[in-house]
Amino acid sequence: MVNQEDPRVLRTRQLIRTAFRDLLQRKGFDAITIKDIAQEATINRATFYAHFEDKYALLDEVTEQAFHERIPEQVVNAEEFTNDICDQLIIMTHQYIIDFYQICRIDSNPMAKLVDDKIKKMLQQTIESIFMKGDTCHGADIHHIKIMAAMTGSAIYGAAHYWLNAGENNRPDVLVDVARPYVMKGLGLENP
């Protein structure tokens, strides 16, 4: 097992992630082999396997890292689910989906499903964290908070994904204007 804190390990993992991202842009996920990743990262296959089980584990880590890098600090530190926080989550999710579907050439339904499921899960966790810090859920128990976070995350993700497929990528402001009122009303947080 490799020491995850060792600077050499961190550098190697970054080389692998960067090589993978570059290959995704050029070849698409299905066409990428471990040999391709290793060559691009200038490592051998055994080194790749010392860090990742397979390209799906690498995809999972790259997806998660890219999502966390995009979360605005205001959202991370939010103690209540406000209109502004909702707007930021909608825009962030929309842009993240655009990047993955257009820049990374998602070329297979199984890969798209993996990425979609991962994004939904991370979005839900982010929203759940905000709910747990504040009184957004009006004293609801953890089970109800998780359900509300799942529904809120699904609504945001669904709207952003639809917007991508509808070809409205250059108008995230309109997406926010359409989606936010429904999300906030569903939480009972709409403005009078």
TrEMBL record:
Entries under PANTHER family matching the protein: ACREF/ENVCD OPERON REPRESSOR-RELATED, TETR-FAMILY TRANSCRIPTIONAL REGULATOR
DNA-binding residues: 33-52
Residue ranges annotated for the HTH tetR-type domain, each copy included: 10-70
UniProt keyword annotations, A-Z: DNA-binding
Domain of life of the organism encoding this protein: Bacteria
Record's protein name: AcrR family transcriptional regulator
Native source species: Paenibacillus silagei
